[in-house]
Design a protein that fits this description.
single chain; 284 residues; D-amino Acid Aminotransferase, Chain A, domain 1; D-amino Acid Aminotransferase, Chain A, domain 2; nine-stranded mixed beta sheet; 29% strand; binds 4'-deoxy-4'-aminopyridoxal-5'-phosphate; branched-chain-amino-acid transaminase activity; Probable branched-chain-amino-acid aminotransferase; Class-IV_PLP-Dep_Aminotrnsfr; BCAT-like_C; Aminotransferase-like
Length: 284
């Protein structure tokens, strides 16, 4: 596989990043994952816009323009013959001379840009067919979840708690309400209405979330953006999650309670179809 590191395309075993890189020492970095269908990028503009926002919130400079970033994405997809899968990108505050909590001067310490691809079947996934089961866990993450940082230890622990419990994922709960999944946005459906937590600093502003809600509204589906409790979720008709690499994926059980008849619901299935169709047409 060919990867990208700071201006160079290299075989993955020749790519190098300093041990003093702040991404490694402080999780001082941001990332994006853009999915690829038919060798084309899904919603690159959305991911680029969120990346610029994440960088801005952390006073970090982009090492390349967004046009250059698009070109690198396309180069990597081509070099690795990715038909279906994703492109991962990470920008960190770079490698300062020493380990220091204080941010280094950006003029002396350029940021690090790393990118790689992953080929993976996204459309024909087992999770989409059968739906996934989730457990609820406490949301103990920091308060700026709207910034897409590489600080993913708790979400990673959440996935392990789910695995231990014999299920697929975890929904995080704070002050009695569901924030989001470990790596996706969470939704419930009640009486035909789609309910998902409103945007704020408590959740990541999912690019798939924005697209799916827009498509749902355009298809005359009712959408309500507000907090919902885990009890309300367990009593819902159906539930689902969204993310760039899983699109719309039905949730069929929460904390061992089956939703509806325990199979993917009609709203989630329809939204998945619409999302894949529309995104494919608009892919770059
Ligand atoms: N919430 C969290 C915590 C995530 O990690 C992700 C995926 N990175 C999402 C939501 C979904 O965001 P997107 O649709 O942009 O992939």
């Amino acid at each position: 596989r060919i990867v990208y590191v700071n201006g160079e395309y290299l075989p993955e075993d020749q790519a190098r990043v300093s041990i003093f890189d702040r991404g490694f020492l402080f999780a001082d970095g941001v990332y994006e994952v853009t999915s690829v269908l038919d060798g084309k990028l899904i919603d690159f503009q959305g991911h680029a816009a969120r990346l610029e926002r994440s960088l801005g919130e952390l006073d970090m400079a982009a090492p390349v323009t967004m046009d250059e970033l698009l070109a690198i994405h396309r180069d990597l997809v081509k070099l690795n013959n990715v038909e279906e899968g994703m492109v991962y990108l990470q920008i960190t505050r770079g490698a300062a001379a020493d380990r220091d909590f204080v941010f280094p001067d950006p003029a002396a310490t350029p940021s690090t840009l790393v990118m790689f691809t992953q080929s993976k079947g996204l459309i024909d996934s087992a999770a989409a067919k059968t739906g996934i089961k989730v457990i609820s866990i406490d949301d103990i993450r920091w308060g700026r979840r709207d910034i897409k940082t590489v600080q993913l230890l708790y979400p990673s622990m959440g996935k392990m708690m789910a695995k231990k419990a014999g299920v697929d994922d975890a929904w995080m709960v704070e002050d009695g309400v569901v924030t989001e999944g470990t790596s996706n946005n969470a939704y419930i459906v009640k009486g035909g209405k789609i309910i998902t937590r409103h945007l704020g600093t408590e959740i990541l502003h999912g690019i798939t979330r924005a697209a799916v809600l827009k498509m749902a509204r355009e298809s005359q589906m009712e959408v309500e953006e507000r907090p919902f409790t885990i009890e309300e979720a367990k009593a819902a008709d159906e539930a689902f999650v969204t993310s760039a690499s899983t699109f719309v994926t039905p949730v069929v059980a929460i904390d061992g309670v089956a939703l509806g008849d325990g199979t993917p619901g009609p709203v989630a299935r329809r939204l998945r179809e619409i999302y894949i169709d529309e995104s494919r047409k608009a892919a770059l």
